[in-house]
Design brief:
Largest sheet: 2 strands, antiparallel
Strand content: 5-15%
CATH architecture: Orthogonal Bundle
Number of helices: 18
Shape: globular
CATH topology: ABC transporter involved in vitamin B12 uptake, BtuC
Radius of gyration: 23 Å
Number of domains: 1
CATH class: Mainly Alpha
Distance between the termini: 21 Å
Length: 375
C-alpha cells in the first residue's frame, strides 16, 4: 500500500527511510509535539517550501531546465488568494477561487514563457526568466492600487482557520515512565503526556497546509514516476537522442514548465492562507529564489525526496541557527575568539559554511549520497 502511495519510488536506503518517516511524523504532529507559535510557523513554512522546491526540481532536476522565474508563479498563487479574499470576503469559496485563478494565471504565463524561450539554449532561457522575474517584481511593486505595492496586502480568511475558533480537546497520548518513580512509593508511574490541548482554528489552518502539501507532493511523485516523467529524465540526459527517437523535446519542456508553475502557484496559495499577508518580499524576492536553489542542491537534484530534506535543513537553519549560535557563544564565553566567531550576527556566514560543507561531502545531495549507500 505504501509503495503504491509513493508511486513505486522507494527511498532507496534504510537511513533515508527513517529520516523521511521522522520528518513526516514531526510535521504531522507538530502542533502537539512542539510548543509555541514559532515552531508551528516553521513547520507550516517547511510544508509549503517542500512543495515549492519539489515543483522547481521538476524543471531543474528532472528536465535540466534552469529557470529564475519560479517565484513569479509562487506569487501568482499567493496574490490570487489575497485578492479573492479581499473582493469576495472571508470564505472558503474565496480561497478556492483565488487558488484556482492563481494556478491558471501561472500556467498561462509559464506557457507563454516556454513557447517563446525554450527553443533557445539553456543559458539564454535562464537569462530570459531572470529578466521576466525582475520585471514582474517591479510591476507588482508599482501597481499599488491592485497589489498594495511594497506594503503588500493584508486580508481575512475564514474564522474556522483562525485562533478565534476552537474545536474541543485534542486527544492525549500517555506514556508510562516507571523508572522515574522511586520503589516503595504509593504514587503511580510518571506519565509523559502528548496533546491534550484545545484544538484551535490555527491548528486547523496548519493541517490544511499540511494536507494540501502532502497531496501535492504525492501528485508530483506520481508524475515523475510515470512515462511522462521518464521522458523528462531522458531529455535531461541527452535531449538530442530524445529528439532522434521521436519525442518532441520542446513540447515536453513546455509541458513540464506549465506543471511546475501550477504546483508552485498552489504552494503560494497555501502560504497565503497561512500567513494572511502577501507582499513582494514574502513571495517574489530573489532571496526566495536563491533559497529554492540551495534547498534543491542540499537535498539532491532529480528526486522529490531531496526537496523534503533540503527544505527541512535550510528552514531549520534559517529559523534556529542564530539561537543555537547564541547559546554556544554563551557557553564558550571563556574560550578565546569563540564568542566572536559564534556571534549570532554572523549566522549567515556559518550558514554559508554549512552549505559549502554539504556540497563538498554530499556532491549529489543528501538523498543522492544516502541512496548510494544502500541500506
Amino acid at each position: 500500500m505504501m509503495v503504491k502511495l509513493l508511486s513505486g519510488d522507494k527511498p532507496g536506503s534504510v537511513l533515508l527511510s527513517l529520516i523521511l518517516l521522522g520528518i513526516f511524523l514531526s510535521l504531522a504532529f507538530a502542533p502537539f509535539l512542539f510548543e509555541g507559535t514559532r515552531a508551528l510557523d516553521t513547520a507550516a513554512r517547511i510544508c509549503v517550501f517542500i512543495v515549492l522546491v519539489a515543483s522547481y526540481d521538476l524543471l531543474l532536476g528532472y528536465t535540466g531546465v534552469v529557470s529564475f522565474a519560479h517565484t513569479i508563479f509562487f506569487g501568482f498563487g499567493a496574490y490570487g488568494v489575497a485578492l479573492a479574499s479581499i473582493h469576495m470576503g472571508r470564505s472558503f469559496e474565496a480561497l478556492a477561487m483565488g487558488a484556482g485563478a492563481g494556478a491558471l494565471g501561472a500556467a498561462l504565463l509559464a506557457a507563454v514563457i516556454g513557447l517563446f524561450s525554450l527553443r533557445v539554449r539553456a543559458i539564454f532561457f535562464a537569462m530570459i526568466t531572470l529578466a521576466v522575474a525582475s520585471a514582474v517584481a517591479v510591476l507588482v511593486s508599482q501597481l499599488s492600487v491592485l497589489t498594495g505595492g511594497e506594503d503588500g496586502l493584508t486580508y481575512r480568511i475564514p474564522r474556522e482557520l483562525t485562533a478565534a475558533v476552537t474545536y474541543g480537546q485534542a486527544p492525549e497520548w500517555r506514556i508510562a515512565l516507571p523508572e522515574a518513580v522511586a520503589p516503595g512509593t504509593e504514587e503511580g508511574p510518571a506519565m509523559l503526556t502528548l496533546g491534550g490541548d484545545r484544538i484551535s482554528g490555527k491548528i486547523a489552518n496548519y493541517y490544511l497546509v499540511f494536507a494540501g502539501s502532502l497531496i501535492l507532493v504525492l501528485l508530483m511523485l506520481r508524475i515523475v514516476n510515470s512515462p511522462f516523467g521518464r521522458v523528462l529524465q531522458a531529455i535531461r540526459e541527452n535531449d538530442f537522442r530524445a529528439e532522434a527517437i521521436g519525442y518532441r523535446v520542446v513540447s515536453y519542456r513546455i509541458g513540464v514548465t506549465v506543471l511546475s508553475a501550477v504546483f508552485a502557484a498552489l504552494a503560494g496559495s497555501l502560504f497565503a492562507i497561512w500567513l494572511r499577508y502577501v507582499g513582494p518580499d514574502t513571495v517574489l524576492s530573489f532571496e526566495i529564489m536563491i533559497d529554492i536553489l540551495l534547498m534543491v542542491v542540499i537535498g539532491g537534484m532529480g528526486t522529490i525526496y531531496g526537496a523534503v530534506i533540503g527544505a527541512v535543513v535550510l528552514m531549520l537553519a534559517q529559523n534556529y541557527l542564530k539561537d543555537l549560535m547564541a547559546g554556544a557563544a554563551t557557553g564558550l564565553a571563556d574560550v578565546p575568539y569563540a564568542a566572536d566567531l559564534l556571534n549570532p550576527d554572523r549566522w549567515l556566514l556559518w550558514l554559508g559554511v554549512l552549505f559549502v560543507l554539504s556540497v563538498y561531502f554530499f556532491p549529489t545531495g543528501v538523498v543522492g549520497r544516502l541512496r548510494g549507500k544502500r541500506g
